[in-house]
Structure formats: C-alpha cells, structure tokens
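Raw record, unedited: MPBQ/MSBQ transferase
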Amino acid sequence: YVLVPVYMWIKDQVVPKGEPI
C-alpha cells in the first residue's frame, strides 16, 4: 500500500530518531 511508506517517512520527519510512534 502506497501510504504506508509515506506515513513512515512523515513520522520520521516529525518524531526524533529512535522514538516510538
């Protein structure tokens, strides 16, 4: 599904590295 990697990328931009969702 296309929006899954997109969501993961956005989360990576907003959430600091190593932090859970």
